Give the backbone structure.
Amino acid sequence: MRSIAGKIMLILIPVIVCALLGGNFLTYFRVKGTTEEVIFQSLSDLTEAYSQITSSIYDSAVKESESLARTPMLKPLLNLDFQVASKT
C-alpha cells in the first residue's frame, strides 16, 4: 500500500506543479496582452485629445487675428507696420 501511495504521490505532485505553472504562464500572457491593449488605447486617446486641443487653439488664434485685422482702429497701424517692414 505504501508503494502504491508513494508512486501516486510521485506522479500526482509533478502534474499539479506543472498545471499550476502552466496556468500562471497563461495568466501572465493574457494579462500582458490586455495591458498592452489598454496602454495602446490610452496613448491613442491621448494623442487624439492633444491634436484636438492644438487644432482648437490654432483655430481660435486665427479667428482672433482675423477679427483684430478687421478692427478699424488697427488698420492704419497695420499699414504703417507693413510700410516700415517693406523698407527694411
Observations:
- The chain has one domain: 2-87.
- The chain is about 95% helix and 0% strand.
- The chain has a mean pLDDT of 82.
- Residues 69 and 78 are 8 Å apart (CA to CA).
